Structures are given as structure tokens and as C-alpha cells.
Amino acid sequence: MAIPKVMGTEIEYGITVRNDRDFDPIASCVLLVNAYREEHTSRILWDYDQENPLADARGFQVDGEKYTPNQQENIARNKTLVNGARYYVDHAHPEYSCPEVTNVRDLVLHEKAGERVVEISRREATALLPPGAQILLYKNNSDRKGNSYGSHENYLMDRRTSFKQIVEHLMSFLVTRQVYAGAGKVGSENRAHPCDYQLTQRADFFETEVALDTMVKRPIINTRDEPHADREKYRRLHVIVGDSNMSEYTIYLRNGATALVLSMIEDGAIRRDLSLRDPVRAIKEISHDPTCKREVQLENGKKLTAVQIQREFLELALQYTSSRSIDAMTRDVLAKWQHVLECLERDPMGLAGQIDWVIKKAMIESFMERKGLDWDSSQVQMLDLQYHDLRPDKGLYYVLERQGRLERIVTDEQIAAAVSEPPEDTRAYFRGQCLKRYPGEVFGVNWDSISFGIGDEPIKRVLMGEPLKGSKAHVEELLEASPTAADLVKNLRA
């Protein structure tokens, strides 16, 4: 039986500094991350010893050197937050990795909390700049200069499920889910065929089917084998093919449908051959067709639209869940999945309150009609970018949200609470509580460990290989009985 789908996202944000002719993206990211302050957490290291980014899920180690920053650089580039998240500098982008969650509603909540964290730090960092300079941040995936940055999803899977089997069934799902998961984009990039508007920001940048790299010859399915959990039991599927979504509804459906399909793969419930003949070509063809009518060729010779392929997966999911006890949230995901596919077949623009690429297209087309503009207008391209602006008063997504024109999953009050509170049903709770209770004694943190520096004693590392342990139910009494970190370590050993 499929294991619970513990999941999370990692969002790289676009960054620039207005009125700064000497803009240095890395220095600006360091300033940004350090401008976000939580009491006593600024000196905690990120534990790179526990990471192995060169391990490939196909069973080998890739040649290369693992980069490990020195202590000063580590502290300057990393923050572990009291809500269990990691906020750090990744190459030339600020990145927010949300805490581990067990369901898609909490995933939406904590990804949206990340937007709040990044915006708070933007305001604080801007206040430190010379007069007139302003940091601008965008939750998008392209700088329109040929550079793309990622929105990565992570799903915990059973180690016994072969990676070959995952690739076989997941490829066509990921290629076609962009009909509801895309963030929308004006024009094309990366030498792709010209178009006025497309479904996703990332499709033009994928060049191969399966590989380890995330920056050069990007693969549709990434092979990183870094579970951040017990390696004997778990696999962390690292999905890099998605867009950075603003819409709560889109995030909810994107992760909910994907988690369900992964459970079906684990349980051997996908018994139809939906393999695509040329996935790299198909991902671009689908993205470049906002009518969602373009057919792509399957390996068996059939031709189907992306919506029809998604309908095949939905039908399999309905069969899969019909004989199982499922919760209300899974039923809701299935209902939303069915609703969206029906709308896409009938008229995609009927989803202008739910799905990112449709919301944005409807907004831009309305503006173009009022102003008498075409898709090549620089104003139209600016409107595209402004949809992703993180400033609450300037970002067009937030404007539409305040006007009540978008369907939501969570509330502003719930998002505000998630900025400082970890989810209660994963090990993120233990991580966050340790940072709150023992900040001066936490030495280093990773997803699957936390280390304490207690007086002159050697560093004490507590391993957390089980993502569902360390929850409030597991550790609340332990924490209450441990007023100091020394007490905690002693009680853990008892």
C-alpha cells in the first residue's frame, strides 16, 4: 500500500534592484535573507554534511564535487525558520523551502507563508539601500534574458517502487498537467517557436527526458536521490518541471493530483500505456496552445490532447479511490480535477477565477482590448511580470485577490499564523519548536537532523529519519519535560 505523501515545495524568486546600476544579484540575495530576523536564530548553521546532491536515482553517483560553504558563508546564506522552513541563497536567487506537510491544504498554506516571509525581508532589506533604490521580487520562472529559475516539488515515496516504473507512468502526467498547473507566459524564450501566449513559463527550457541536472539540459524528470529521510525506506521525488504558481487553487490541484498519481504508481494502479512518443517536443507543443486542442502522439500511435490524457489519469484515479477509504480533501481534489478538465474541454476561459494561466490571460486580454494593444507590446509583457510581483499593493494577482475575483483555499489569517508556526503533524514541528525553545543551543539543522551545542560537550546530533515522527502528538510531552536542550538530549536517550 502506498505510503503517506509527505510533501513540500522549494521556490526560487526572481530578484532585481530598481535604480541600482551596479546590481549584484548574489549580494542582494544575501542582504535579503539576512534582513529577515527571528530572535536568536541568525547564527545557526545549515548542516551540509547530511546532503548528497550527486546521488542519482538510477543507481549511481555522478562525478563532481559537493560544494560546502565555510561557516561564515553558511550563516550568511542560510536561515532555518521557526515555522520549520529554510530560507536561503541558491546561486543568484532567494529560495524558500517550506516545511514538510502531509496534505495539500497545508502545502498551500506554507507556500503562501513563504511569499509573506520573502516580502517582509524585501521591505526590511530595501530600507537598508541608498535612497531611491528598491528591491523587487517576482514569483515567476524567467527573467526574459534566457535564464530560468525553478519551482520544485518534493514527494515522499516508497523506496521499493522502482525509479523506472515512476518514469514510465509519470512522464506523460507531468507533461500534460500544465493545462491546469501552468502560470502562463507572454511569448516564448530559449529559441522556442514564437507564440503570443503559452500555458507555462518553464516548458521552453526543458531539453531532455530524464537526468540529474537542474540548470543545464534540464530534464522533465529529475533523478536526484537525496531522500532527507531513512534511505532504506524512502525516496524523495524531486519534481522540477512545474511553474511558480500564485493561485492557491492551482497549487492545491497541482500537488493534490500529483500526490494521488504517485500513490497509484506505488500501488500498481496505472495499467494503461499513456507513454508519449516525444515528451520534450510535446511539453512545448502543449504549452504553446492555449486552446488546449493540440494533439500529441503517444508511443502506441494514438493522438490525444493533453486534456484527454489527463482525463485518462483522472478516470484511473476515480477507479483507484473507489475501493479505498479516502478523506474529504482527496475527494475535493478529485472533484476539482474533474471540474477543471470539463472547463478546459468546454472553454478554458471559464477558469478565470481558479487557474493561473487563465486568470492572467483574461486579465491581459481585457487590458489589451481597452488600450488597443497587441501581444508584442512592452506594456503587455510588463503586465505579465507584474502579475507575479510580491508587493501586496502592486502585484496584480494580489489586486485580483482583494477584489474577490479568485477562488481561495486558505485565509489571510491562516497564512499569517503559518509564518511563525510549523505544521503539527510532521517532524517540522519538532524542528520549529527546538528553534523557539533552545535557539542559543541549536548548532546546526538539516531536514533530517538537528544538532545541539551544549556547553563544552561535543555536538549532539539528533537524527530525524522518519518525517511523520517529531509531530506535536509525538514530542509535546517530551518538550514540556525538557526546559533546556541538555534536558532534551538526556530525555531522548532515556
Structural features, described:
This protein is α+β, with helices and mostly antiparallel strands and about 500 residues long. It folds into two domains: about 375 residues, Creatine Kinase, Chain A, domain 2 (2-Layer Sandwich), CATH 3.30.590; about 80 residues, no CATH class. About 40% of the residues lie in helices and about 15% in strands. The strands form seven sheets. It has a six-stranded antiparallel beta sheet. Strand 6 and strand 7 form a beta hairpin. Helix 4 runs antiparallel to helix 6, helix 4 packs parallel to helix 7 and helix 6 packs across helix 9. The radius of gyration is 22 Å and the shape is globular. The relative contact order is 0.14. The mean pLDDT is about 95.
Q: What fraction of the residues are assigned to beta strands by DSSP? A: 15-25%
Looking at CATH, which topology of the largest domain would you report? Creatine Kinase, Chain A, domain 2
Q: How would you describe the shape?
A: globular
Number of helices: 16
> So, CATH architecture of the largest domain?
2-Layer Sandwich
- How many β strands by DSSP? 20
**What order do the strands of the largest sheet run in, or round the barrel if closed?**
6-7-8-1-10-15
Q: Any idea what the radius of gyration is?
A: 22 Å
Low-pLDDT stretches are none
Relative helix content: 25-40%
CATH class of the largest domain: Alpha Beta
SSE class? alpha+beta
Terminal Cα separation, in Å? 34 Å
* Largest beta-sheet characterization: 6 strands, antiparallel
Round the mean pLDDT to the nearest integer and report it: 95
In quaternary terms, these chains amount to: single chain
Q: How many domain modules?
A: 2
